[in-house]
Structure formats: C-alpha cells, structure tokens
C-alpha cells in the first residue's frame, strides 16, 4: 500500500510537474511577454565590437586607397564621378554593402582656372620684357605619371583680373604719391596687423603683396590687403612652416622624404563661409533662389594666386626696402625685406613689376553626395551619421582618401555582419561621402540644409574622419564634450599600431593630455571651434554632437603646419604609402577606433554621452571669462552673474541626470524612460543653438563652439564682442557684449532645463 | 478497474490541471512580462472623458468669474497680484489642485498713463479758451461701483507729448503752406490708403487725425500717419462698427443691453510686435540685455489717444472740408467730412485746434506667469500645454477672465481626479496663466523664450482659451490643420448649451462650415495666422501645434467687430452674466470641449493628429498661389514648380504615414514604434520653422502661418513678397519673392521628409 501510495504520489507529482511545465512554457496567452520586450532592452554587444576590431584589415584599406587615388578627383570632374561610382558599387555590394545606397545631387557654385588660358605670374621689366615666369604646374618626379587632369594651382573664388590702377578701390590708400602698379611687397602672413605694420613703412597703393600661408585664413590675406590699395596677392608655403626648413629636391624633399618639393603649391578654397555661396540656408537645387554673385562676401576682392616656394624665393630674395622684423623671416637664405615697394636696385628685377594674369571663373556644377544606410532595428528613427568628403584637389591620397579608405573598410566589415544576419544596429547608421568639401564644405552643408528638420529631430551624433592619417604617431580627436567618454572608451579597446599591449589611449595620453578636474590626467579631446571639415554643418548649424578623429604627428619631430604634400600634386598613393603610413596600420587603427565609437553610439541601450563632461568644459570657459572679462564688463555696468548662475545650474542639472542614470535598472526600465534620457542626451548640443547669435557668420549657431577671432579658450561670442568693445570703447559695442552675455547665459540655462527633471 | 482507471485518470487530470494553473499563474520568473508592458500601451479612457464632461459645472465657472473680477487686474497692479494669489491657491489646493504650481517672474517693459496727470484731449479756441474737454474716464452706471483702480483709457506705448510743429518729422509733408498745428482731420481707419486718399485733398502737415478702430492695427494708425506730418492721432469706436448703430445709453446701450455706452473706450496695446519689446528673443530677467528704448520699432511715433464715441461725435460732426466717401461714413447722424483741415466755419469750434496732452510713460515692471503641472505617468517628457492670460485692462470679465474661469474649472475637475488617484495622464499637462498679454502677449512669449529648447523638444500641443465666450451662439476654433480632427471629435461628444441632443459639432457646422475635398461639409476650423493671443509664441516662434477655442456670435444677429464692452470698463461680471452668457452654460461648453481635447492629447496612445489634413490645407494654399502668382513669377523667370513638387511630396508622405498608422496593431506594437510615429506627428509643425524667413517680423518663423498683409488665403511670405514685387517691379523685390518661394518649398519638403520612412 505504502508502495502504491508512494508510486501514486510519485505519479501525481510527475503529472503535476508536467502540468507546471506545460502551464509555464506551453501556453500562449494575453499576458505572455510580447516578443519585443527582450528586443527593446538589447544593449551593445562587446563581442561584436571585438569581432569588428579584429576584422578591420589594413591591406583592404591600402587597396581602397589605391583604387580611390587612381586619378585626380577634384569636385565635379570625371575623376570625381569615378569615385561616386566606386562608392556606389561598394555600398551596393550584395555581400559587404549597406541596406541602401544612392547619390544626392546639388548644383553648386565652384571656381576653376581656365585650362586653356592658365593663370600667370611674371616679372616684367619697365620696357615690358618678361624677366621671370612662375611655374604653371608642379614638377613631376616620375613616380606618379604626369596627368593632364592635375589642376593648375589656383586660389578658388579669387577673381579673374590683371590688376590695374584704374581698378583701385581702397579705403586706406596713401594717395600722396601717384600709384605705380605691380610693385611687390612682402606682407608676412597677411593678417590685419601685418598690413598695418607694413603700411607704416611702405605705401601699399598699387602693390602686389606676397604672403606666406598661416596666421590668417586663405581669403583673409586678400580681404585684409584690399583696403590698403593692394591690387593682387601671392601666397606660398614657406619651407620654415612646412618643411622644417628643408628646400632641396635633390635629397631633402619628396620623392626623397615627406617634405614639399620646391614647386609644390597648396591649393585651396579662398572663402570664409561654408556651404554653397549662392544659396545660403537653401539646398542648391535647380530652381533654388541664388543670390547675385556680386553679393558674395568672404572671398578675395582682388586677384590672388598661390605659388611654390621655388618661385617665392626668386621674388622675395630680390626685394628691396627695409629688413622685415625677425618674426617675419622664413627659411630662405636671404633677409626678407618689405619691398621698396618693389625689388632691390641691385637686383636683376630692378624697377620691374610683378604681373598677375588670373583667369579663374565661377561655374555652377553638379556635385554629388553618396549616401548609404544601415537601418536600425529598434530605433530606426535615431541616426548615427559617419561621413567624409570624397573630392580632392588632385589625387588626394591623404586628403580625403585616407578617410574614405577607412570609411569603406568600416562599411565593409559592418556591411558583411549585416548581410550575414549577424548584426543589425539598434539605431540607424547613415554614411555620407560628401562632394565639393574642398570648395567650402559644400556637399555636407547642402545636405544639412535640405534635411534640416529630419536631421535636427533624429541625429544622435556625427563622426567625421576626413584626413584619417596626417602622420602615424598618435590618435587625435576633437568633439563635443559629451562625446569625450565614448571616444576614450573606444580608444582603450584598440591597440596602437604594431603593439599587442599598448592601447591607443595609452599612446595618445603621452602626446596630448590635460588635467581634468574630474578624471585627473586624460587624453585631450579638442573642441570643434572652427569649420575645418564637414562636421561644421552638423555641429554649428544643426547642433548635432560631433566628433573628428584622425591619427597625427609627433610634434617633437616636426613643426610642419600640416603634412607637407597637403593640397599639392604630391598627395599620392606613393607618398602616403611610403612616408605617411607604411603598412597602413595607422589607417587601420583609426578605422577600429572610429568604428568602435560608431557601434557604441548605434547599439548602446543608453547613449554613451556624458553631460557632466560638458559641465566641466563650461566651467573651464567660465573661469577664463571671469578672469578676462568680469571687471571690464562690470566697469560698463554689465553683470556677468547670469552666466555664473547658468553654468552652475547646468552643473547641477547634469549631476542630477547622471544620478538618474546611475539609479537605472537598465534591463527592467520601460523603454520610454530610457528613450527619454537618451533624448535628453541626444538633444543637449541642440540646446546651445541660437540662429540670431552671430548674424554675420553663415551657419554658426552653436553659442559654445562658434568660430572666434579672440583666440581665448572661452565663449566665442562673448570673447569677440568683448574684445571689439574693449578696443573701440563704443557704446554699441558694449551693448553687443551685453547681448552676447545674455544670449549665452540663456542658452546654457536652456540646456540645463533640458537636463533637469523632465517636468 | 475501469472505474479505478477513470478515477485515477480524473485524479491525474486534476493534478495536471492544477499543475498547469500553477505553472501559468504561479511562477514569477525571468520571462514574466514586466509590469510596464500593459502600462505603456494604455490608451485614452472614454469613460473618464465622459466623467470629466459630466463634472464640469457652470456654477463653478460663475463663481470663478465672480472671484476673478472683483477688482481691476491690469498687468502688474495690486489687482493682478490678487489673481496670482488666487490661481496659486486654487492650483495648490490639496483636494482639487495640480501636482505643483508656482510663479515665474519677468521684468517687462510696460506703458501707463500718469494717474496724477491724466491725458487730456481738448478743443482750444484761437485765443486759448478751452471749448471742449473729452472725458477722462468712462461713465459709471452704478451697477459696478466706481473703482479708482480703473485705468484711464490710453494708448499703451504711444509716446507722451503735446504735439508742436517743431517736432515735425515727416517724409511726405506738403510744405507749401506754413504748418498750423492741431487742425483736426478725419482719416477713416488710418490705413495707408486712407491717409494717401486724404492727403490728396487736405494738407496733413501739423494735423491731428481722428480715426476709427478697425482696418489697421492700433499702432498702425499712427505709424501710417506720421510720414504725412500728422502730429497726433485720436481713435474711437464707431457705433456702426460695434453697436449695430446704437448710441443712446438711456435705453440702447449698457446697462440696458450689451452695446457699448457712449463714453466707452477700447484700451489697447499700440504695438505691432509681440513679447517684451526691450528683450527680443531673450527672457526679460534682471540682468538681461535690453535694447535702447529709442530702438523700439512698431509703436506710434506720435502721441495717440483713444476716446469714446460720445467725444468723437462732438468732434467729427463739426468738421469742415469735403464730405468723405460713403465707405468712410459711420453711424453718426451727420456727414463725416475730411476736415478743412479743422472745423466748419459755422461750428462753435471754428478755427479751433485739438490739443493732445499725453503723459504716458514706460516702466519696467515685474509680471508673473502662474504655472501648474500634472505630471504624466508614461511619457512625462511630452507636454500638452493649456493656457490663457490673466491680466485684463479693467475688470476683464470676458477678456480674459471668461477663459481663466474655464481653465480653473478644467483644472478643478482634472485635479480632483488626480488627487483621488482616479487618473493620471499619459503625458504631462502644463497650465499657464500668462501675465501682461494685453501689452503684447508678453508673459507667454517670455516663457517660450526662456524655455525654448525644452518646449521645442517636448511640446505636443498648445491649447489657448483666452476669451472663452464672446457670445453664446456657437463654438469657434482655429488651429494647425493637424489638430482639426481632435477638435471635431471632441465637439461631437459635447452637447450644445441647453440641449440633450444637439452636439457642439452639429450646432457649429450651421454657423461656420466649409467643404473639405476629403470630408465634404465640416465645421470650419480657422487658421492661426496672426498674433491675436498667447498662441503666437507657441505656433509662430516654437512651431508647436496650437489651437484657439471659444464660443462666439451668430453673425446674422450683429455686425459688431467684437463684443462691445471689449477693453472697456464695462467688461464686468454683471455684463457677462446678463448679456454674454446668462447661466454660464456656454462657458461650460467651452470647458467641456477644450478639456476633452486636452485629455485626448494627453492620454491617447497615438497622438490624435492628422497629417493628411495638413496636406489638404497646403493644397488649398498651393491652388491659390498658382492662380495668383504662377504667371507673374514665370514672367520673371521664377518657376513655381518646386512648390508644386513639395506639396505633392508632402501629400504622399502624409498618406504613407496614415497607412502605417492604419496598419498598426496598437496594443501589440513596441512602445518605441508608437513613440516614433507620435514624434513624427508632434514635430510636424516644427518642420515649418525658418528663423530667417521673415527678418523684420519678431517671432514669426512658421512659413505657413506667419502674418501677412496681402490678405490672400495662401502662403504668407510668398504672398507679401509677390505683392511688393508686382507693385514696385524692382529686381530686388522679385529676388525676395524667389527667395520666399525657395525657402517655403524647402520647408514643405523638409516637413515631408519627416513624415516619410524614418530612414
């Protein structure tokens, strides 16, 4: 009986267990957890990140670069179209491509020299004999074949012209002596103070000024010159600034080293605003309103031409006049003189004039962005954007194709994971291969204009990798302070080239570091204060948290302004593979780091942005503003206290949000709560926008990161307005300083409001 | 055995069932549905809406109004402070209050007459004898006691002054005859064409112009006059325009009817922009930058004073000169003449002048908004905002206290449901009792400036109920087209006053209707094209989908411009309860309708906005634009095609989104998908903002709803620019028309992008 009972009990127990199991797992009912519950709480997968890192291949990057640099691909040329097709092919590849890829076209205003009538710079004797002619093209060294598609060096957007005295329009002309035209003067870097200084000694009316790159923006050298009656500007790269003094191509410069050969010329866009110049705030489409070309501002008002230092040497070392001050001296083995104006009486160019014959012309051309997306699975309406321009000046192996090769490797690895069904990001990823960046960030800017609303609402971040590798010493990164943490985190997970143990982070901190009040010594993530690459439209115009990532120099080894082949015909695959990153492991490191950041932004359940790091930056800026401006403002009855209050409220709100985040039980929170916090983090940079803050600066709306002339590590609008007011002492300038202080305080306070309790 | 087996089987089945039940309901495990899953899919509860409707009480509204109108409560006066305290008391009530209530203060620029030196309007004979003095205050009829706090009628922001010829600054003066000052002329409504017409007959230099309300904005009457050398402006309300011609207070006007008594004067703010005038785009705080008062634009450049029609009669009927045209004639029993300038030779005022002695002064005063919130349970970071101003000119029983009484009844019913734990909205509700609206929507505008970022990111909608009841005939509503559907839905659920069967909708459609291409005949929801009340900052500056709701006239019964006691001392509890809404059932109906809309916006799982209704509106506007402008633009080589494309893309994108919505299985969708669609709907109006579209119009950024002079039911910026260009035929004006067309097309296309596939 006992046995029976036991057996019966056992049987019952088994049946009961079966029932329990059936009941628990076997019944689908109304209260069953919907399938999406697990899905919405999915977080970043560290194993996939490791997989990504391991699959990024330096040789793939090398081959990408080889393909991209086969021909010169200046914006809107046939070579550019070849790269469009290549990008489309890669991104539409069924095995390694993206979900979708397409091109977007804009009709943009560009400027080109006339291939049939090249620009000329000559020295002409008083009798009209041409004594000297500057090179029209850079010397070819045979390693890269001579290519008729290499564009003659020119100053894009500088006007055509043959400077004549009847064209003189100047505010500051010294009219005591009758103007003779074409006398050469040396104006150092062409800054306002350089011309002011020069003008104390030399009558600039009717002169041609030769200037060296650096110190002032390209267009600025001519804009600053024109008020003095200067009729033309030459610009060259002094070997002191780019070549550590090296000048000889027989053994010192490329193809023997990375240094610029004597005939190398930095091309560039000579403008101060970004985006298509005829369609400010409007995407440049077929029937879009265009401003009259005469209304364009921020370009040279007088003919301007860049030349090599070989030609600059021939001109500068023959100048007469007084010796220029020590800080004006470059690397030439002669004394740099102001010019008499004009050449020394004992020179072969005595009494000769410099003639500029410039034939540049503006053209409206069709420029393409190539776009590609990986659609997000859970939050497709959140965009992480990764981009780089595609157009170069010549072959552009470094600028921009180092970045494009890296981007293509990132998309190859991610695309394959997607195509194989191994991965789909939480958020959508948009890749942009921008057109016509070299002419003023045009493709990316038109994109931000056309999709302003959509991008404002949904963009989590923009990652820019333009020149991926300037040099192979260390990572360099700039960005919005809230992005610092994710960049640092990614950099700790990637090894530095050629090492199994030293992380990118550990290497980086040796080259660039700062002492953070919060973290102690950490790598220094810079700020995106200018408009140096395609991040400008994103951070300044859209207020999207942005970053710019690259590998760069060991500054103890060179004082070059930038890599010496920059914007020259020498920026080739050969140059890059021999002198910049042999083996392409620095490229690989950038791909791994930027890709890691990208994956974290796309996959993290909670966005990896730290708003307290923003507070730290604002506090640093505030400290500097108090130091520099508090007293001066107070003397004009302007209290800086609202700014102090705003920064301190921002700090508290950020701390409070960090606390909410710390207390989150991520796996069990409602997805709407996580989304709410993510929105607070995502929209933080948006809160710093004020479209009326800088009425004279196209596209600059971010009151913390706008460009500034004052050169102080503090709030740009306040700094510039204060410096103007302090120098003019005009009431209206002090009013503007006060206005800047108020709008800045309001923006910071407004940002704090977005971080605090949601209601 | 069979029995045993059966029994055993039964037992086993029972045990199995027990097990199944235990397994299904008894085990908490990792895969159990989290508690928030049900919560996040909660939708609007129709029973709660019915409960709300039934609890809204007309007698409560009556008592609210009695309390609010005890004393005059002009902005920043002691009476205003009393209403602040009352609102705070009500919203902090432990039984019927909100979660939280507080005040927010701004230091704003207001304008007041000098109580010690009242403004004077007199007729002075050539020998300096005062022949006539206009009333300083309105006549008291004893039903409302005389209150020293009743402000003298004045034109806020009109400058102080005693017009003298040495102050003459005019562009269009006829200087042939020496100016004599103070000669009266009648200038109809003071529009530009009125003055142009008058100027053909009369030399306006040095004259005082008397004008009637209507046709042009208050400030405009003086702004339009000044260029002709007019030195002062009087303004009055003609009985034709407000009283259906009635004039006698012995039996025709208040206190015998709702008509304005002869001494009644419409006060008002004489400015054309909204918001605090010294702090454009900045919240007016203690240390905020303020523009110099001399830089204020949009206010009368010359002294201006409003008077009653009793005084206007005495002046106008004695005027000399030619008879004015029929459309200039009002209800007075005399012929309205232009003025000689000045009075008739046979009048007692012969050769006399009109003297204005205006002592208005600007003051920076502390104005409060009272804010209250009910925190949302599921999406607290989404705000539905409901507001009305609190300040009046005098007792303000209708303007604004009808709206405030309604708001207080809405908050009483909702607050009690919250306090009793019966309800908590899905989204947060913010109530705003704005200060200083009468001076130019100041409180609400400062609020939108201070919290710009937070409100831009999170506001679902703004509901404005200012004057809740103009009259008791029918509902009237204006709003963004996407809000049409929720207003119509709510209006179907509420019964019209005094009926158990006729809905507000059924009644409304009889008074205001239109034929929609989509729906056929429906009530006509108007557009928010101007800045008539506190919605301006929300729709025009923030781009938040807004609505304005009230009860209003049977236009077949009166042609009054507005209710006749508007902005007079007669806008009292007595007036409202006897002539506007006896029994307060229209107030109740507005509370029920607006509250219903509010609850739907706050509780609906999917926002009740319809983007296809927006498409219908845009198509209507496009049709009109094609009709009016296509040819003229084409003649200037401007193609309207981008606008056509944009509207058509908007229509497709809207249709697509509606399809996605139709296909939703709401109860089972992931909350992030619903949120995504809600964000698309919520942010739709935001996509129409362009801060640079209307550089001369403070706060107007919404390219569809900005104010317009052209008076055409089409896109305002294009309409105004086209009309200017067509009349001037200047190249730059056609350029501006083209720019308007481009920015409009881009905004509509940008909005379409936000409605389409999220990626």
Quick rundown:
Chain A has about 750 residues and is of the alpha/beta class. The first copy, chain A, contains 22 helices and 18 strands. The first copy, chain A, has helices spanning about 1-25, 35-40, 45-55, 60-70, 80-90, 190-200, 220-225, 240, 310-315, 400-420, 440-450, 450-460, 485-495, 505-510, 535-540, 575-580, 585-605, 610-635, 640-660, 670-680, 715-730, 730-755, and strands spanning about 100-110, 120-125, 130-135, 155, 185, 205-210, 230-235, 270, 305, 355, 360-375, 380-390, 425-435, 460-465, 475-480, 515, 520-525, 545-550.
Overall CATH class of the largest domain in chain A: Alpha Beta
Question: In the residues of chain A, how many domains can be counted?
Answer: 3
Q: Which CATH architecture of the largest domain in chain A is right?
A: 3-Layer(aba) Sandwich
- Write down the CATH topology of the largest domain in chain A: Aminopeptidase
Largest interface: A-B, 86 and 85 residues
Percent range of helical residues of chain A: 25-40%
Give me the CATH superfamily of the largest domain in chain A. Answer: Zn peptidases
What is the 3D form of chain A? globular
Distance between the termini of chain A: 71 Å
Low-confidence stretches of chain A: 26-30
Subunit structure (chains A, B): Homodimer.
Organism (chains A, B): Umbra pygmaea
Protein name (chains A, B): Aminopeptidase NAALADL1
GO molecular function (chains A, B): aminopeptidase activity; metal ion binding; metallopeptidase activity
